[in-house]
Design goal:
By secondary structure, this protein is of the alpha+beta class. Helix content is about 20%, strand content about 25%. The protein binds manganese (II) ion.
């Protein structure tokens, strides 16, 4: 239970696939990654599951029908042929590991099944990527101590960090029905807010539209009502991760959030990247959890294990870029506005999961946990505009001379990320993209 994450032949940096990796966006998906997603294409509009490999997608239903996954249990094969990832997420962790090993063997250079597997691989440019998981519950946390301090300072300069922060990963229940795949347009939402100089709220399009760069964590098997998951077993209950943008309307949020917290200022859209990177693929990038601050009380015993301290962190480096309509029209490249790192998160994804069900709350396969904004200690490592703009005191200057406070119509926000470790093949996550459309 307290062992280091398992590395096997699927993580070997020397391993190569026979699938072409010439496309520029193929570098995210070497054979050591094998993330899972859901897609359709013109030839077959029926949604099905797939695996990203180089610039291709392996059609899992076709692979099952061709008998390529015959060595796996019938239930794993049935889940692979399903229309959503949820059934696969509900399988025991060892079956998911066995699937990864089978996929790796099929796609590796020298595979005896290359010809039959090749018939199941489509070009990624020919498919439409869909929402991979039927998310029934979405919870968003607040696990960056830098984000908590930077935002807390705006409200309570003397006392930015609230006393609960060192004791538990703070969270709120979000809205599952508006978790959508990358590329879903974001229509500027309406809401009540106090406008400059007015004591009464008015209803209208938000004037403080923000993004939050986060990691999304998908629950695997989950737990029955009343049966918590210990921190030692939490890694078995996590299926994988994605990139997540918790779009936020700060003016709506500010007026409505007292005393019950986030509501309509966030429930209008949450975007996720289409590929789910499994916990197995992340094994080479597990690192120690961020150090506890010296003044923090000792962790409650249910939130502490040596394994979580030693291997609970994830070395994931994010990049957030913004491109305005004028920048795109002028052929300018997107502008990098933040490069936060997940290693700086104060709470681990396993502590998030264990804390979530510590009261007996049932987590279902495919439930989504947001990490909260990922922000680091420096100005280059901030994960949202609320922090970058210091509550409206600063603006950002874009290439071409435009300035930005909060997001404008036509702005496109893109989150990407990568994992890099010495002696290991780097892996990526694809992208979580959204473009701001005028209010309806
Ligand atoms: Mn958030």
């Amino acid at each position: 239970v307290n062992a280091a994450p398992l590395l096997d032949e699927t993580h070997d940096a020397a391993l190569r696939s026979w699938v072409s990796a010439a496309a520029s966006d193929a570098a995210d998906f070497p054979i050591q990654n094998l993330p899972l997603g859901r897609f359709a294409n013109c030839a077959d509009p029926q949604p099905r599951l797939g695996v990203a490999i180089g610039d291709g997608v392996l059609d899992l239903r076709a692979a099952v029908n061709a008998g390529l996954l015959q060595a796996l249990p019938a239930a794993t094969q049935a889940a692979c042929a399903g229309a959503w990832l949820n059934d696969l997420m509900a399988r025991p962790a060892h079956e998911v590991v066995a699937l990864r090993r089978s996929l790796s063997a099929l796609l590796a250079l020298g595979s005896r099944e290359r010809q039959r597997t090749e018939a199941c691989v489509l070009r990624r440019s020919d498919v439409r990527l869909l929402m991979p998981v039927d998310v029934r519950n979405y919870t968003d946390f607040y696990t960056s101590i830098h984000h908590a301090r930077n935002t807390g300072r705006q409200l309570r300069p003397q006392n930015p960090l609230l006393p609960n922060f060192h004791h538990l990963p703070v969270g709120y229940h979000g809205r599952a029905s508006t978790v959508c795949v990358s590329g879903t347009p974001l229509y500027r939402p309406h809401g009540q807010a106090l406008r400059e100089g007015s004591e009464l709220p008015t209803f209208g399009p938000t004037q403080a539209l923000d993004y939050e760069c986060e990691l999304g964590v998908y629950v695997g098997r989950g737990n029955a009502l009343g049966q918590p998951v210990s921190l030692g077993h939490a890694p078995d209950a996590v299926f994988g991760v994605c990139l997540l943008n918790d779009w936020s309307a700060r003016d709506i949020q500010r007026f409505e959030a007292q005393p019950l917290g986030p509501f309509l200022g966030k429930s209008f859209l949450t975007s996720v990247s289409p590929w789910v990177v499994t916990l197995e693929a992340l094994a080479p990038f597990r690192i120690p959890a961020a150090a506890r601050e010296p003044q923090a009380a000792p962790l409650s015993s249910y939130l502490h294990t040596p394994a979580d301290r030693n291997f609970g962190g994830l070395d994931i480096r994010f990049q957030v870029t913004l491109s305005s309509r004028a920048m795109r029209d002028a052929g300018r490249a997107p502008c990098l506005i933040g490069s936060p790192q997940f290693r700086d998160q104060y709470w681990t994804i396993f502590q998030m999961l264990t804390h979530h069900c510590s009261n007996g709350c049932a987590l279902l396969p495919g439930d989504l946990l947001g990490s909260g904004t990922v922000s680091g200690p420096s100005d280059e490592e901030l994960g949202c505009l609320l922090e970058l703009l210091q509550g409206g005191q600063r603006t950002i200057t874009l290439p071409g001379g435009e300035t930005r406070g909060y997001l404008q119509d036509g702005d496109e926000l893109r989150i990407t990320a990568s994992c890099v470790a010495e002696g290991r093949a780097s892996i990526g996550f694809g992208a979580c993209v959204g473009c701001v459309m005028p209010a309806l």
